[in-house]
Amino acid sequence: MELALDWQRIIWWTTGMSLLAVVATVVGVPWVISRLPADYFNRERRSSWRRSGRAPLAALLLGVAKNLLGGVLVVAGTVMLVTPGQGLLTLFIGLLLMNFPGKYRLERWLVGREGVLRALNWMRQRRGRPPLEAPEDDDHH
Questions:
Q1: Are 93 and 29 in contact (CB under 8 A)?
Q2: Which helix (H) or strand (E) segment is 46 a member of?
Q3: How many CB atoms lie within 10 A of CB 79?
Q4: Which residues have C-beta within 8 Å of that of residue 125, sequence separation ≥ 6?
Q5: CA–CA separation, 110 vs 112, rounded Å?
Q6: pTM summary value
Q7: Contact at 8 Å (CB) between 34 and 124?
């Protein structure tokens, strides 16, 4: 009997977390996508708000928080691949938030996939933002 109650709690918690992730995705993904510069995937160098030199401890804490949030979104996106929700988009946003070697190349590869750029630009259009530029060939970078 106790085992059944444990499983029931687990199911309720995962259902609640899945619903929370869906709501956060529906609100958060378009917000983040609409704030990217149109040339985000074609820049030679990325500027970093953390390298300004002011408040290094705050920058470190924000960087850690950003990476933790990105990790949570990657896990949630993975779960949403098999449950209701925007799994691929949530994974994408999680990866955008995180810092790791090869991130830029992975982002460009993902955006170059069929329909991904179209979906991102649809979100931007709904918010009155110009479309993202398609990534150029890696040979140019």
A1: yes
A2: none
A3: 16
A4: 131
A5: 5
A6: 0.60
A7: yes
Contact 34, 123 (CB under 8 A): yes
Strand, coil or helix: 140: helix
Closest-CA residue to 132 (of 32, 49, 22, 27) = 32
Tell me how far apart the alpha carbons of residues 38 and 45 are, in angstroms, rounded to a whole number. Answer: 14
As given in the structure block, the two tokens for residue 37 are 């510069």
Q: Which one-letter DSSP state was computed for residue 40?
A: G
CA distance 68 to 83: 22
Two structure tokens written together for 43: 């820049």
Helical segments of the chain, H only: 2-35, 56-80, 87-97, 103-111, 116-126
Nearest to 40 by CA among 126, 99, 108: 108
Judge whether residue 1 has pLDDT over 70. Answer: no
User: What are the tokens at 23?
Assistant: 């709501």
Residue 52: predicted pLDDT: 54
**Mean per-residue pLDDT of the chain:** 81
**Rounded Cα–Cα distance for residues 45 and 62 (Å):** 21
Per-residue pLDDT, averaged over 14-28, amounts to 76
80's tokens: 């949403």
Dig out the tokens for 140 from the structure.
């140019």
